[in-house]
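pinging the channel bc i need a second pair of eyes. not urgent but kinda urgent?? the chain im working w is below, pasted from the shared doc
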Amino acid sequence: MKEINIKELLAEYEGYSPAPIAALSNVTSKNAGHRHEYEIDEHGDGVAYLVVHPNNPKIKHKHVIKNYVVLEAQSSCYPKCESKYGDPGAGPHGHSIEKEVKYENFKGTATTSKLYKGRREHKQQVNNKNLPVGEQTSDGKILKNQLDLWYKKPFYGKYDSQLNLTKLQLKESNLKNVGETKFQMLDFAADAVNEFLRQYNIEREEHPQSKLNNIRVVKAYDAPINYDSYFAITYVSFFNAVLDQIKKTNKIKNIHDFSNLLYIWSSSKDIPITETGYYESRILNIYNTGLAFDFMEINSEEDKKTILNDVRFPVLNYVAKINGLRIDPNHPSRLILDIFSRPALDQYASGYFLGAKVEELPEKIVDEYFESVDFSKSSEDKIASFFVNVLSAYGRFISKYPGYISYQFDESTPQAYKRTFQATKVKRTEQTPEMFFNYVDAVPDGTAVYQTLSKESIRQYVKFRISEANTKVTKKQVSSIVDNMYVLNTISNKLHYETSKSYMELRHISSQAVNYLESFIKPAPLRGKSGIKSKKRDFIYFLGRGIQKTF
């Protein structure tokens, strides 16, 4: 997911501002009347994201990027777009990728290849100049002390060892002020930071040429906006970008049209819509975990160099290490508490988990301070709550724009030279949550029924999640996922109706439909990583994960 500027989202919440939702960082040159957002890896390979024709979402295309070159592409319907859909598509064309950058060895407009090389050079500088990283003290201690949130651990603080997506439990009792400041962190992390500052600022001598004397906290825990508020704000951006231009047309007749337009818009812009998509996106960052703080503001690459070359930086690095704090090499004023660090566990976390073994503490920290995003409620409730949000947004739309104009040929009027049309205002269809469910016979004679999510509702949810996870899935796989989720969810509802199972058994099985989906589409950067306890996709594994995280 590309980063989204929450401040801009919040600004849009008051009224219908035309301001863009995303902080666009990578945009191609304009050609054939359009541009693309794009993303590339360190080799210059990637994709220029989907662009959709403003009048017809079926006219669309994207480009492959190879070695910093945008390969030629055309609308998927070209050259028959106009005959099929009434609007011309884009013929074969390409784009160039440039970006305005200011880096250490060059300024002004630079190609993306130079941008990448500059970023790589910075990374090498950090690794080399983060002294004494990689060196040893006189008693043989290794001082390497980094937690790289760019390249190596971009999901630190978001997933547990079973690849369950987590979020911080918003309990005031878990937070603690750092010293006498207004800044807060998780209680054991605040203890570590307080001791780090005491040892560094008081016990170690200052240096007259250092800018790192008497450091203080300038940024720490940042409370995230909750998902429901995020969804409401995102609706405003959706309205500005899509609905406003077609609010009086028949392109939005009912909730299905509304949902399809929301999917096309969000997937083309890489904007998360589901709760899981929101919490796994980069909208939420390391400061939302309560595990990180900054000791200096960084506004430029010069600020980074100042910190890395400071005479006291090796001392700061060492004192951070012995207190379980690691430095982000891409943002060297950011220190992150490492919940796998022995000093952090021995000296600080252990005081909050009396009697626990040190090796048990990382898992206990996750269980105590974080909660599962996907397994805190049943699959049915999880998916249904998503559609309740969609339905709420649709209701908000039709409350202001209850109808659309339909033009019909007037056969009663003589057509001497041209046809005449009669404009009719048609009321948009109102919907209730029941539309997302089916009713299934609980007993053979049909005298009792229970409610379960329809296959079409599950399919819609799966479509959003696959797009958000940026996972390549075939149509056959999608059908299989939907079928299996429907069966798992229906079994769960039937068991609930029968009530012959214990409460714990019912809770174990109720999350398995979403569990199945998330296990299939878990983020690509996490696949194949060491330390993952299981990668199996069989039902026993799914059940085990559900049992582990339900309570």
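so The chain has three domains: 26-122, 130-223+284-372, 379-550. and DSSP finds 17 helices and 17 strands in the chain. — does that match what u expected or am i reading it wrong
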